[in-house]
Amino acid sequence: MEMKLNLRTAVPILLLVLLALVPLYATFAQQPFFLTLFGRIVVFAIAAVSLDLILGYGGMVSFGHALYLGLGAYIVGIMSFHGIDNGFVHLGATLLLCAVVGGITGLLSLRTTGIAFIMITLAFAQMFYFLAVSLKQYGGDDGLPVSAGSRFGSVTLDDPAVLYYVAFAVLCLCVWAGRRLVEARFGMVIRGSRQNDRRMRALGYPTLRYKLAAYVISAMVCGVAGMLYANLTHFVSPAYLAWTASGELIVMVVLGGLGSFFGPLLGSTAMLLIEEWLKGMTEHWMIIFGPLVVVSVLVSRRGLYGLLGDLQVRLSRRTRAVEGKA
């Protein structure tokens, strides 16, 4: 009897169920720190999922994706600084600004490929990083405290549990919508363009428009993650836009598995939990963490999500071998 359990579906779904139970466990164990830790995991999973749309499916290596994370965070911080706590205004401004910036930067960067695309996205992110540093009125290099969280009617994201469940709902929506999107004609064109852009254009598909649309969608979703992150930390900083933050997002996607959507969820969870564990052991945790990432990529170049597939194949073969001997 062939093994019917699909590990690549069962494990991520189990992880989502466990993430949904975190607030209940935090209340029961009287450990509010868990809400902050796993809230950070959920928020960065949203950002990593948004990056996977263009990196994993479109082959667009954006080394400046944290730009949109920072824009979403600064929208909340600056508006809160001026006494505007309306969450709908925060959300609308975040989506609009990220769409405009994503559209402009995308039009310029998507006309190139390879290292040129990487450098252009990095350059734009660094431009906004130094812009944030120069905004002395909003804290400059020291950052800006968020005095009031986003308020959606009677619901406010100042409550850690409310913020967690809102972020969790956004993550589930992003995973579901992302999978539907890449399975549709839009996703097929994006994937086809990654394989052979010239052939897709010869077939009559305006691949630049499709890639630009994917880039803008990715930017907007990452901006929402930044908005949630500002509410989580009650603080915004130019560090949110730094190239190191973009690098962390890429590591999450690669570690979890490119082109899967469940992969970034696994990657962000594994990376941030291991990071927190190592920080508790030594202040030189990065010396240990770096080789761990290298080893994980060498073990399975398709990331943790691919590793689950390899494990399922091995278990299926072993099951058939045992049944054959019986």
Structure description:
The protein has 326 residues and is mostly helical. It has a domain at 17-241. It contains 13 helices and four strands. The protein has a two-stranded antiparallel sheet. Strands 2-3 form a two-stranded antiparallel ribbon. The longest helix has 27 residues, at 207-233. The mean pLDDT is 89. It is found in: Cell membrane. GO terms for molecular function: branched-chain amino acid transmembrane transporter activity. Keywords: Cell membrane, Membrane, Transmembrane, Transmembrane helix. InterPro entries: ABC_transp_permease, LivM-like.
Shape: globular
Compressed to H and E, one letter per element, the order equals HHHHHHEEEHHHEHHHH
Question: How large is the share of residues in beta strands?
Answer: under 5%
Across the major sheet, the strand order is 1-4
The tally of helices reads 13
Distance between the termini: 11 Å
Major sheet attributes: 2 strands, antiparallel
Low-confidence stretches: none
Rounded average pLDDT: 89
Cα radius of gyration in angstroms = 21 Å
Class inferred from helices and paired strands: mainly alpha
Question: Based on the structure, what is the oligomeric state of the protein chains?
Answer: single chain
GO molecular function: branched-chain amino acid transmembrane transporter activity
Transmembrane segments: 39-59, 66-84, 90-108, 115-135, 162-182, 208-229, 249-273, 285-304
Membrane topology: Multi-pass membrane protein
Keywords: Cell membrane, Membrane, Transmembrane, Transmembrane helix
